[in-house]
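Teaching note: in complex prediction, the entire set of molecules is handled at once rather than each chain in isolation. The prompt given to students was simply: 'Predict the structure of this complex.' The entities are:
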Amino acid sequence: MDAIKSSGLADVELVSAKDVFLGSEGEVNAHSFETMGAKIRARKP
Amino acid sequence: MAIQVAPEIETLRKEIQKKYTEVASNPELTFHFHHGLPLAKILEYPEELMAELPPEAVESFAGVGNPFSLGEIAPGETVLDIGSGSGFDSMIAAKMVGPTGKVIGVDMTDAMLEKSRKTAKTLGLTQLEFKKGYAEELPVPDRSVDVVISNGVINLTPDKSASFNEVFRVLKPGGRLYLADIVVYKPVPDAVKEDVDLWTA
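The expected output is the structure of the full assembly:
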């Protein structure tokens, strides 16, 4: 999120996050770091 | 974003290209992440969007969210898809902008570019083009894009700040970013950050 804001983009919003690795082969590694698929919205002023 | 310390950039890019060439060429295989139609269903893409696309457009899809759920894309707009892969999101965007709009898909993996170009041609989507490039060096003019979409890609780039600076550069004033990507909520040890297999998985 910091990298997005630092670019100059505004209204940066984490809209939602979902466990997209559930049931995949990478589930254990993903869960080790609480890895989620996130949806983020922003706007150029 | 997810990981801040990178292996050597060219090494990382080559490993990612190798992984996604497999996804493009052999979508029937199992990977560390979900892909294809089952993934699109997990991510709740509307059935009516997927129904308009042929199997080749969907089978190698490897995203982490549905960027189209973040806002509208209007007919006539210009959309940039960073890390367009097999072209799944680009083709959906192309249908949204229609023949008066434009969609540019950028990807660094030749096998994905070849596959997406072939499918787009089959669909007659003349408003859609695919270019080879990197998120940190987008082959797109300044202030030329209404909407940037990206799906599960920027987490793979070695320099996230450069990638988002490029998003800012190419967007028109008032332009929007609809981003689906990986976030981690626990600290990642440096040894893990340097593990190329984990980056590409």
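Point out the following to students. Chain A has two helices and two strands. The longest helix of chain A spans residues 27-32.
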